[in-house]
Amino acid sequence: MRLAGPDDGIEWTIAPGEWEHDVGAMEESLDDGWEPPPLLSCVEDGALVLHDGNHRYEALQRTWAEVAWVVVWFDDPGERAAFAARLGASVPGVG
Prior knowledge:
Elements (H helix, E strand, L loop, with lengths): L3 E2 L6 E2 L2 H16 L7 E6 L2 E6 L1 H9 L7 E4 L3 H11 L8
Parallel strand pairs: 1-2, 3-5
Antiparallel strand pairs: 3-4
Helix pairs in contact: 1-2
């Protein structure tokens, strides 16, 4: 879930023209080989929420990127364990 963009009901609304300009520039950069920094996300009530990288995420989607680096943080160790269990992943330090 994005927190920023031109869509209704988003926490941080960005004017459509500004959004398209910024995302379009990133799309061009991706086509030229740019490797964007990781997206920053946290888990809130079991859902991944994108806190930083909303423009990058949209540009990656538009260019059909298959992978992207994402740094995910958790405010609650129990939520971290539950998230890892849903993924079937082993998370160091989680029993």
